[in-house]
Amino acid sequence: MGVVKAVLCTGFVLLMAICSGGGANIVTVDVHAARRLLDQGNTYLDVRTEEEFENGHVRNAINIPYRINTSEGMVNNPKFLDQVRSHFDKEDHLVVGCKSGVRSVYATIDLLNAEFKHAYNMEGGYLAWVENGYAV
């Protein structure tokens, strides 16, 4: 049931992104295509919190949280794009993932709007990765 909910949420977010006309043309890939991209040299950008990342992650992933815990609760990481720019060039090929595929949509939109040309959203996130038995 959780995967169905995640897919529906991701679909809704993608529909909103398309309808908003924000200029970002998101490419969403399933977990199998994401693995192929990683095998071809793309980098996995994990946008989950540090705590989530420490509990398990895609092998060789770089963790830059899109949302962070503060005294006011979860908020967007105001340094997200600066942190990404410090690790990657705008021409680098990135597979962006989170827990279930929702935060990664927003992160991918921000990356594309910041002129990162090869950012791909991974549908289903880390849950789909683990569910398919891929290495962590």
UniProtKB/TrEMBL annotation:
Residues 1-23 form the signal peptide. It comes from the Eukaryota. Residues 38-131 form the Rhodanese domain. Pfam families: Rhodanese (PF00581). Keywords: Signal. PANTHER family: THIOSULFATE SULFURTRANSFERASE 18 (PTHR44542:SF12). This is Thiosulfate sulfurtransferase 16, chloroplastic-like. It comes from Salvia divinorum. The lineage of its organism: Eukaryota, Viridiplantae, Streptophyta, Embryophyta, Tracheophyta.
